[in-house]
Amino acid sequence: MGCEFSGIRPVDGDVCLDGQVVPMKDTFRYLGSMLQSDGEIDEDVRHRIRAGWVKWRQASGVLYDKKVPQKLKGKFYRTAIRPAMLYGAECWATKRRHVQKMSVAEMRMLRWICGHTRKDRIRNDDIREMVGVAPIEEKLIQHRLRWFGHIQRRPPEAPVRTGILNHFENTRRGRGRPRLTWEEAVKRDLKEWNISKELAIDRSAWKLAIQVPES
Description:
It comes from Rhynchospora pubera. By secondary structure, this protein is mainly alpha-helical.
């Protein structure tokens, strides 16, 4: 896969391994995440949603059992299914369409847990209250801000922090509509939740500020 994160096209030419040409790909799976040559996350979001449904099918015997309390089903969802959907999400620069896809998938799962469909016309908030599950979009932001706090507390010379900050500073925007960066997504989160980034230095205060309680 030839990456074009900086807007500069990779050098043309074939890549060979043991005399065989390795085909060029637009996406590449690495450590459970789907990387795209253009730096977007659409494929990774779809991949994580599919991973969530795989976990769902594996646990369908419990989630469909009417003898199991709904709160317990919700706890099972929070423990086994949602983590699969949010794996690597702390590094996502999500747009509205990404959040919408995650939310639609989650609500479909939660409605099935409760034995309802959209035709029953039950509000999403009421469904969440039944199973005790916070909105996945809020948990996604929590994951991103938790990782941001981790970066902020590292020493300035630390490789992780230096590498990420240099990436933000050196990333060039290509033509057309600017691509949303992770740093911009964090700034949006901080503004939306009315949190100062300086608070991240205090681990306990930061954890309390970004905590999303379950319904």
